[in-house]
Write a structure and sequence with these properties.
The complex is a heterodimer of chains A (161) and B (414). In chain A, 30% of the residues lie in helices and 19% in strands. Chain A is of the alpha+beta class and 161 residues long. Chain A has one domain: OmpA-like domain (60s Ribosomal Protein L30, Chain: A). In chain A, the strands form two sheets. Chain A has a four-stranded mixed sheet with strand order 4-7-5-6. Chain A is elongated and about 85 Å long. With 414 residues, chain B is mainly beta. Chain B has two domains: 138 residues, TolB, N-terminal domain (Rossmann fold, 3-Layer(aba) Sandwich); 258 residues, Neuraminidase. The radius of gyration of chain B is 23 Å and the shape is elongated. The chains are: A alpha+beta (161), B mainly beta (414).
């Protein structure tokens, strides 16, 4: 699968100025060939944490461009914190997400801040920071593909696993 | 530079064929006659078509073909300059193809003179590239500006998997650099266009990779346990600016690629990301949420303890900026009410110029000669690439690879 191709920047131009100021040029092309690589992905989603069953699909949602926890989210997180306090051996992964509006990198950072907001709440409620992994998928993993507020609101979320 | 008055005519989207939203009307584009190249008929017609499409896409040319002309010279001796002057044609291109090499000449009709005589030595099975070289020679001779037909565009596609793809500047000749089951974002070229940097989620978390295009060799640029994103090369290729999340928040750092030292640039509790370098590498522009909405800021790297200076004030979302190659202004994603548009702001003007009109325009990347911006648009749930010249001409780029986004323009390759 690794073919021996290379880009040859063979590039020669001779500019000869003739008496009539005409440009005379000669050039050789470069090949521009590339090699294809397959990424082997570590699929963390398939790792079955014991905690997963307990918090199965626990998800909290956010307002547009906001990272603060809503009162509804706080209720959900209270039971998550209780479960973690009752099971001190369990770790938790917080994955933040954004809707598709705005730039991808800004949305990646927004998803991270949402996950950090959830993390901060859990830490305040007695969960040790080293039990929590925080990450973001930005707008890359939408739940709903529509281009309306109903879809967008489902995508602005933190998934707790 | 000649200015264009724009009338857009939309043609329907045909897969795998360039869709031009043709500009016409004009003050005065250059009027050029391209005659069929002598030699192999099929080859000649393929090359002629690619050259004509390239010139039209620039928005700076009206192209005449044999059927439009009063006389069709086969060589220099047969040229009747007056037949072209009557049609107000400015330039004439004659050429021939021999053993895969192209020889072409450009004539100035007003002066009645040959102004260019060029040979491009071909390599087997690279007809498109050959036509792009010819286009750039013609373009440079007539406009005095370096052409971009022979440059490349890097972008991400998503179908059943994610691919990092490189294609010719007209969207054709797609070649895959990386395939992954996990998202790929933020691809960008090294200044010498031999490597690319990008963000891959293949480890389960955003990480920045550098990959050699020709060999496929790749590496993670910083090893730590948090996510890393938004790579941008310094103009000299020695540094990479990045967004690191190890402080619990998005902060911009500069990575020295030879000794791997990291220097922190920003320190604020709000989001700082999407860093980019000025053409001479003296400044870094980035997106920050510190004012309450995403806005663009600049840091002067020549001063120690330089404070970020806000540079966008109109609109409630200004992000993903990049500098024009001549450092006279910036392009960025702009939202004033609900639509995300690509916008241009010159430093010597106190207003911004929206360049596009759709609802979800993103990821602007400018050509190395500063004349054309490629960006991503949404057509329903599918992403497409589109282009706009700074004079306002628009076009779309085809891809057969599903949803397309995040284009990044290479440097000059010729």
């Amino acid at each position: 699968m690794f073919s021996k191709l290379s880009i040859n920047f063979l590039f020669v131009i001779f500019f000869l100025v003739s008496c009539s100021s005409m440009n005379v040029t000669e050039e050789t092309m470069y090949s521009g060939d590339v090699k294809t690589v397959q990424a082997s992905s570590v699929n963390n989603e398939n790792i079955s944490y014991d905690s997963k069953a307990m918090f199965a699909n626990a998800t909290v949602y956010f307002d547009f461009d906001k990272t603060n926890l809503t009162s509804k989210s706080l209720q959900t997180l209270k039971s998550v914190a209780n479960a973690l306090n009752d099971n001190p051996d369990l770790d938790v992964v917080l994955a933040g997400h954004a809707d598709e509006r705005g730039t991808r990198e800004y949305n990646l950072a927004l998803g991270q801040r949402r996950a950090e907001a959830v993390s901060d709440y859990l830490v305040l409620n007695g969960i040790k920071k080293d039990r929590i992994t925080v990450k973001s998928f930005g707008e890359e993993r939408p739940i709903s593909l529509g281009q309306d507020e109903e879809s967008y609101s489902k995508n602005r979320r933190v998934e707790i696993n | 530079m000649k200015k264009l008055l724009i009338v857009l005519i939309f043609s329907s989207f045909v897969s795998s064929e360039l869709v031009l939203e043709i500009t016409q009307g004009t003050d005065d584009p250059y009027r050029v006659a391209i005659l069929p190249f002598k030699g192999d008929k099929k080859l000649s017609s393929d090359i002629e078509n690619i050259v004509i499409n390239n010139l039209k896409r620039s928005g700076e040319f009206t192209v005449f073909i044999a059927a439009d002309l009063l006389s069709v010279p086969k060589n220099e001796e047969e040229i009747v300059f007056n037949d072209f002057r009557i049609l107000n044609i400015d330039y004439l291109v004659l050429g021939n193809i021999n053993n895969g090499d192209v020889f072409y000449e450009v004539y100035d009709i007003k002066k009645g003179l040959k102004i260019r005589s060029s040979t491009v030595f071909g390599i087997p099975n690279k007809i498109r590239q050959l036509a792009h070289y010819v286009t750039d020679g013609i373009y440079e001779e007539i406009t005095g500006i370096k052409g971009i037909a022979a440059t490349k565009i890097l972008y991400v596609t998503q179908s059943d998997k994610y691919s990092l793809v490189v294609a010719d500047s007209d969207g054709e000749n797609e070649q895959i650099l990386l395939e992954s089951s996990e998202p790929i974002i933020s691809p960008s070229w090294s200044p010498d266009s031999k490597k690319v940097a990008y963000v891959s989620f293949e480890t389960g978390m955003a990480k920045v990779f550098i990959q050699n295009i020709a060999t496929g060799e790749r590496e993670v640029v910083v090893e730590n346990s948090s996510q890393i994103s938004s790579p941008a090369w310094s103009p000299d290729g020695r540094f990479l600016s990045l967004t690191l999340y190890q402080d619990g928040n998005a902060e911009i750092y500069i990575l020295n690629l030879s000794n791997k030292n990291l220097t922190r640039l920003t320190n604020h509790y709000s989001i700082d990301t999407e860093s980019t370098w000025s053409p001479k590498g003296s400044k870094i522009m980035f997106t920050s949420g510190r004012s309450g909405s995403p806005q663009l800021y600049e840091l002067d790297l020549r001063k120690s303890n330089s404070k970020p200076k806000r540079i966008t004030f109109d609109g409630n979302y200004n992000a993903k900026g990049s500098y024009l190659p001549d450092n006279q202004g910036i392009i960025f994603v702009h939202r004033s009410s609900t639509n995300f548009q690509i916008a241009l702001k010159y430093f010597n003007e106190n207003f911004i110029r929206p360049l596009t009109v759709s609802q979800m325009d993103e990821s602007p990347s400018i050509s190395p000669n500063g004349n054309v911006i490629v960006y991503s648009i949404k057509d329903g749930e599918t992403g497409l690439l589109a282009g706009v010249t700074l004079s306002g001409a628009k076009f779309r780029l085809p891809s057969n690879r599903g949803s397309v986004r995040e284009p990044s323009w290479s440097g000059f390759l010729r």
